[in-house]
Amino acid sequence: MNTADNPSPARQPLLGGMLITLAVLSLFAMLHHPVAHSSGAQSHSEAMVRIAGLARLVHGALIATMTLSLVLLGEFARLKVQRAAWMRAGFIVYLIGTLLLCGAALINGFAVPALAESAAANAVGIEAAYALAWQFNQALSGAGTIALAAGMAIWSMDLVRAAGLTRLTGGYGILAGSGLALALAGGWLQLKVPGMLLALVLLAIWQVSAGVLLMRK
Prior knowledge:
Layout: H1 12-31, H2 44-80, H3 84-117, H4 126-159, H5 164-185, H6 193-215
Helix pairs in contact: 1-2, 1-6, 2-3, 2-6, 3-4, 4-5, 5-6
């Protein structure tokens, strides 16, 4: 590893603080995730139009926090993961997960509200279009979250060889990452709003720990 390419020791606490802040912001955004509730007097399109603005804001914030977290976690892995192959493998898998989750957020946060606001909202078969969009969202969310969990676990398999808080972070990452991936792959966890919030909490705990490790240099 070329030390000339590494952030200075004075910058590492800043990177750590940013990681922690992004983890908190992602949870804050998810806690405000809107849900469209339709009734007999209100169509699904009308319910979607009512929450369209908040949906765009929340999903836009989630895309931003996920993207920035990817960049900063890449820096964390470069500094703390000792084996280069594990560092690269974890980053590639985490990158794939981030891209998939951004795709899911674009569907629910932008494509579906735009469809609800369009002239097609009252067309025959619109409910089938919403159902198809939901299936795409769930497929992308599931695969993306599994990839994030796997990337976290890959990095953690290197971290666990160290001592102290680094080992604890690695141990947690292996357990949480493998458990989350298995729960999703086995169908025991559904990524509706409560399930997605749980997944983000598990990932955020590890991200906060990574931030603390950077702050401690």
